[in-house]
Amino acid sequence: MNKNAVHLLLLKKLEVDLDVLQRAAQTAYEAATDKENIAENKYDTLGLEASYLATGQARRVEEIRQALKNCQSMTCAAFDAAHGIQVGDLIKLEAANGNEQWVYLTPDAAGLKLMHEAQTITVITPRSPLGAALVRKQPDDDVQISVGGAVQTFTVCDTL
Questions:
Q1: Spatial contact of 144 and 151, defined as CB atoms under 8 Å apart
Q2: Residues 67 and 19 in one domain
Q3: Residue 96, domain extent
Q4: Do residues 109 and 155 both lie within one domain?
Q5: At a CB cut-off of 8 Å and minimum separation 6, what does 62 contact?
Q6: Are 99 and 82 in contact (CB under 8 A)?
Q7: Cα 91 from Cα 3, distance rounded (Å)
Q8: Does 154 map to a domain?
């Protein structure tokens, strides 16, 4: 597994998402300000709805722009055993049932799924329960999180 390649995949995914959302936000803005959508009576809400959509999409554009900026400034140093798992580390976990998964601990962009070397990598942040539990852990350490009242246990198999 190549952490630098995974990092580049993350940045590319965020750039593509940002581009798509910027175009969608522009389209929503144009619909909201189009003279055809001016309300003719109090029940005509097409312009108002388009305005709400444009506002929400503009917020989402800014969120993705900030996530991209944060991930671009993230260092991709090799795992440092003296500090344990930190933001920027790529971690292989094994669940109690034997299932393995890769997670990439980043400052932002939680929930993204990346494909690298036929492996799905889930982006998580230290703000998530799993991310918070992993910070400062070492290979072979166990972490437990509670999700919906159920306790899940993971073993740190590998860190990059």
A1: yes
A2: yes
A3: 90-159
A4: yes
A5: none
A6: no
A7: 10
A8: yes
Hey, what long-range contacts does 134-142 have (CB within 8 A, 24 or more apart)?
Answer: 134/85, 134/91, 134/103, 134/105, 135/84, 135/85, 135/86, 135/105, 136/83, 136/84, 136/85, 136/86, 137/84, 137/85, 138/81, 138/84, 138/85
Residues 86 and 160 sit within 8 Å (Cβ to Cβ) = no
Query: Are residues 59 and 101 both part of a single domain?
Result: no
Please list the pLDDT of the chain residue by residue as tens digits (160 residues): 899 999 999 999 999 999 998 888 887 777 666 666 565 666 656 666 777 777 888 898 999 999 999 999 998 889 999 999 999 999 999 998 999 999 999 999 999 999 999 999 999 999 999 999 999 999 999 999 998 888 999 999 999 9
Helix, strand, coil in percent for the chain, rounding step 5: 40, 25, 35
Answer yes or no: is 117 within a domain.
Answer: yes
Q: Which residues contact 150 (CB under 8 A, 6 or more apart)?
A: none
- Residue 151's CATH number: 3.10.50.30
Question: Which amino acid, one-letter code, is at 5?
Answer: A
Q: What is the pTM of this model?
A: 0.83
